[in-house]
Amino acid sequence: MPKKKQTLWLVKDSDKAINWCQCKLSVAGRFPQANCPWCGCGWLLSCAFCRKCFTFGRFEWFDESLEALAKRLATAARGPRVDDEDVTEMARFMEWAAEGFEAGDRVVVIDYQLFRVDEHGPFEFEGAFARHKLDVLPQVRELEEPGTLVATLGDMEYWVERELPDE
After folding, report:
1. 4 class by beta-carbon count within 10 Å (0-12 exposed, 13-18 middle, 19+ buried)
2. Do 152 and 92 reside in the same domain of the chain?
3. Can you tell me the distance from the alpha carbon of 82 to that of 67, in angstroms, rounded to the nearest whole number?
4. Is 119 strand, coil or helix?
5. Are residues 73 and 154 in the same domain?
6. For the segment 9-31, what is each residue's pLDDT rounded down to a tens digit?
7. Cβ-proximal residues to 123 (8 Å cutoff; 6+ apart), any chain
8. pLDDT tens digits, residue range 86-97?
């Protein structure tokens, strides 16, 4: 009997580009976006268990309910202090982030937005921190031209020049 599909969520897809996570199963937590996205928090995924980052994610089915997986990931992030509100918030985030994606979709994150790596630009969007206009996803370009990822998304000027005005 085939396994029941329950929850679609992100795992590390590869060790290419930037990859500091060495977990046997790297499962993404919340996107770690802060007010300094050039540090990597605006363009890397973070493992929920070791909190180290990686570049490429892939959606996979987990044989756990959304609530069970959300609780496991929230507990990994917050430890024994996790409460029902933390779990609910994580579950809502996971549902939002996975919307429109399918198992096997390979993705990268830029400024709190997920993009399939096989999408073609241009990419024009407003993220959590800045307004972007990119011909190619820098993470994908990195595979052909090493160093371009840090030279673009890792450059503070890139973000400051495109920063959204305070509301």
Report:
1. exposed
2. no
3. 13
4. coil
5. no
6. 999 998 888 888 899 889 998 87
7. 110, 115, 132, 133, 134, 135, 137
8. 899 999 999 999
